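To whoever is covering the structure queue this week,

Two jobs came back overnight. Logging them here so there's a record in the thread.

Job A:
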Amino acid sequence: MKELVEVIAKALVDHPDEVVVTEKKEGKNIRIQLHVAPSDMGKVIGKQGRIAKAIRSVVKAASSKEDLRVDVDID
């Protein structure tokens, strides 16, 4: 899941070298934290959070095959 979020985020931002994705596993729960440059924050969140919601939806669909619960936090 970490790689999926990283690929999506790097495609959206102007500074892909500053994208950092960390993953913490806790049983069937996975917490993914996405860090981007402050100037790219708006591009990752989108108007009214639409892009962030779309990223979470894609990750949720990918994780449902593996019976995992994934939370994506954007910092």
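Job B:
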Amino acid sequence: MTTNIPASVHPLRLSLTALFLKFLRFGFLAFGGPVAQIAMIRQALVEDERWIEPARFNRLLAVLQILPGPEAHELCVHLGMVARGRVGGLLAGLGFMLPGMALMLLAGWLYVTWIAGDAGLSSLLLGVQIVVLAIILRAVVRIGEHIVEDWLSGAIAVASLIATLAGVPFWIPLVAAGLAYAASDRPLVAAAVLVAAIGVAAAVHGLAPSGATASAVAEPVTLAALFVAGLKGGMLTFGGAYTAIPYVRADTVGRGWIGDATFLDGIALAGVLPAPLVIFATFVGYVAGGIGGALAITAGMFLPAFAFSLILFERLEAVVESHALHRLLAGVAAAVVGIIAATFVQLGEATGARISNGVAAGLLFGVALVAAWRLKGMWVTPALVAGGAIAGWLVMP
């Protein structure tokens, strides 16, 4: 199947092997999060090799930022298609993600084999987890600054936060937020959507088992459930990879497959590896279900990133012109801000229950938060994680 390459594009004549190896190299160098990753790709393929025009690259990036999924990975898939069609897009995406996935599989094996359950390392890991909470809080604010643009999106975020803490299923605030924001120019319709959402939430919440009953017995781990957990995170990653956290957590920690401490350890590891941050799902899948679980959840997480570019290649830029769709996605994104904020609160409560030295923990959290807020660069997250480990080892009993 061929693709219609725009006239402004000047793809190089690369073999499929050379294309794969080029993006594999990008994957090995993908430190520092999406901003650094996108800057690296832009310098190499737009500025140096001129695969596409800078103006088109900027439009493409604008589209990818309003669609779910890790932008840097989706960008690689799209540019691979520019060079060699859909097979090229598949190979480019695989090349970019494989180094991080392989390293995370190794990290998961080391964690399960040597680290988990070692009482001597508990204080060190607790320090890391406190620092990761500070990083997540900074991410919530950063994401919110880009997504919460008016009073309605702010109200949606707050309502979503409250609903999530109250135990309302995630899909209700997402659907209601998207429809209400899309219909914001028709107040009666928007109000009807919100009233219906409250009714559905009350009905579903009334039928759900109590928290104590639901968590009494862990559900059996299945590859299908791990795949769906990853797929849910991949489909709902708006505004940054941190927005995948609540959905993966709900389907793994929420089922008793891993604990919140281990979950935070996975996020910390993802922050220091050369990979999109959503690679934390690979770690979660490995701890919960071994190598099969890791591959299943990773496949689910990255499938949307492949699909949006591979299927919608010729139509991606038209998404920007669809005002109704843009507002629908903006409403969903505002709800996601509230959901991830609620998840921060829940993770904070779980971590706080294991802290015996509240003063030291508070100081560590505060210092990490200030550093995450004020410092920039690909070295910041690894440095904070290392600092948290040292601080935990020194001052956490």
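Note for Job B: Residues 71-115 form the longest helix (45 residues).

Please reply-all if you pick these up so we don't duplicate work.
Q.
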